[in-house]
Amino acid sequence: MVRRFVIMAVAVPLAAAGFRKLSERLEARRGPTRTTRWMRQGADVLAGFGRQPQKKRRRFAW
Questions:
Q1: Are 23 and 40 in contact (CB under 8 A)?
Q2: Which residues lie below 8 Å from residue 44, measured CB to CB, with a gap of 6+?
Q3: Per-residue pLDDT, 46
Q4: What is the largest CA-CA distance in the chain?
Q5: Cβ-contact 22, 30 below 8 angstroms
Q6: For residue range 13-49, what is the model confidence (pLDDT) as tens digits?
Q7: 20 close to 43: Cβ distance less than 8 angstroms
Q8: DSSP per-residue string spanning the chain
Q9: What separation, in Å, do the N-terminal and C-terminal C-alpha atoms of the chain show?
Q10: Rg of the chain over CA atoms, in angstroms?
Q11: Which of 1, 27, 56, 60 is most buried, by the most CB atoms less than 10 A from its CB?
Q12: CB-based contact 15:45 (threshold 8 Å)
């Protein structure tokens, strides 16, 4: 249980940050490509795994 928490709390955000940084470096060197766009999207997905889904807000009480 603790191992799973450590992975979700530490390793996944670090992997997302590394993916994003690598994507930025590749874009700086070669320009934007499909691969760098996928890497950024993958980092966004990884960063979202640690968060709890937000409840939808209702505008009216009915």
A1: yes
A2: 16
A3: 80
A4: 54
A5: no
A6: 888 889 899 999 999 999 999 999 999 888 888 877 6
A7: yes
A8: -HHHHHIIIIIHHHHHHHHHHHHHHHHHHH---HHHHHHHHHHHHHHHHTSPPPPPPPSS--
A9: 40
A10: 16
A11: 27
A12: no
d(CA 23, CA 17): 10
**Residue 38 structure tokens:** 């996928």
Tokens of 32: 């934007």
Specify the amino acid at residue 17.
A
Residue 51 — pLDDT band, cuts 50, 70, 90? low
* 41: amino acid identity, one letter: Q
Instruction: Return d(Cα 8, Cα 32) in angstroms, integer.
Output: 30
d(CA 8, CA 29): 31
Residue where the block lists tokens 């997905």 = 45
